[in-house]
Amino acid sequence: MERADQPSTRHPLTPDAISAYDGACHVLLDNWTGSSTVPSRGLYPHQWSWDSGFIAIGRRHLSPPRAQQELETLLAAQWGDGRIPHIVFNPEVPLDAYFPSPDFWHSTTAGRGAGAGAPRHVETSGIVQPPIHALAAWLVHRADPDTSRRRGFLPRVHPRLVAWQRYLTERRDLGGHGLAAIVHPWESGMDNSPSWDQPLAAVPPAAPGSFTRADLAHGAPCDRPTDLDYRKYVRLALDYRDHGYRDDLAPHPFAVEDPAFNALLIASEHALAEIAMEIGEDPSDHLVRAETATTALRKRLWDEEAGQFFSYDVRAGAPVRERSAAGLIPLIVPGLPEHISDALIATMTGPHFGLGTATTLVPSYALTGAAFDASRYWRGPAWFNVNWLLERGLRRYGAARRAAALRAAMLRAATDSRFTEYVDPYTGAARGSRAFGWTAALTIDLLAQGATEGLSTTTTEHTEPRPHAAGGLRDHLHASPTARP
């Protein structure tokens, strides 16, 4: 593995940070399949789309070529219409290890119709997940620009990433207002969020006993979505599959504009502008698209009185007034007016989400919400990827002390919980799968910030870890022989 240059500013890391680094590296080593990283060996034994984006962001500090491979493996399963499927299936994993399995999605047959163009060489799902990928690719490049340029990483992935963004902005603008719509709750990444209860109400569930869930073998039923939730998820997926995954033909009984999904779309458009400049292309189109989508996000989803963004039910023609953490994630979007960024931070730290008072991590759903459940998946627990995005947003809009406190809390929670999937927002108790891929990867990313900035409250606005931060991080850890992903 090539050794990166040392950053210009170095700060000593504590024994706890060294322990966190070693533990996180072991998780990534154990979850590596040879070409990509599984979220967890038990519950999620395949490659997941936005998981791989977050995992690549962490891996860039350890092995930029492997981080590049993570994204390239995912992009190799891209469909002809540009979509990146939310699961790329490993053919060596038994069909009953995960549901819905490849024999449910039938991507290589049902997805081959005109306009969709599913690949023939690999089985995938037919739906998508949030578009973190261009942002991830840009951050991976910046970790080691020399190796990236030598391998031609950005010129290879740029056209695929552009096709992915165009799929979302053109084929998925189901409301006609310049925002991408999700057509299944799983596409949000926040599967059973209370934000989906209202739009799902009219969806008929699949018949009881028509499928067997595999997730309950790996987690407590009280932590997982309910059987009724799953029956509705299955019905939506079946209907989409039976229409050949054609967005122009499928009826889309569930169609929602999600603020987090669209915020990541905008952030990735800005990243594509950076990528375009790096490879000698004109960034103007990406910047115009980012600005247009940001305007649509504000006009369509912002609620001034609530101080956050709400999802919009395209079919009902009305906002979904549930306070999900998804409504805070637009804090990552560049150029928000001050009154919006200030309001988002006030909502995050106020009684609804309690950051810094009732909670040390932002819960996935408001503490004050009628549907709040501290242990059930996306209905209240705190997730590491959500908090990583919010920490980034806090730094962007000048809340450096709050960002530093959130970063420190994330590192404590990750190590105390053995890199669990998510935690109880009040107690920090581990929930879901242990040794979770993106928890480990984002822990490494936060530690890299500490190596270059110091784990203090003096972080400046718009700060990214410097290129080659991994070298400084590994130097501080004495190039631990046990941590070599």
Automatic annotation (TrEMBL):
Coiled-coil annotated spans: none
Protein name in UniProt: Trehalase
Keyword Hydrolase annotated: yes
Taxonomy of the source species: Bacteria, Bacillati, Actinomycetota, Actinomycetes, Kitasatosporales
Organism: Streptomyces harbinensis
Keywords on record: Glycosidase, Hydrolase
Any one GO molecular-function label of the UniProt entry: Glc3Man9GlcNAc2 oligosaccharide glucosidase activity
Record-level GO BP terms: oligosaccharide metabolic process; protein N-linked glycosylation
Gene3D superfamilies assigned to the protein according to its UniProt record, in alphabetical order: 1.50.10.10
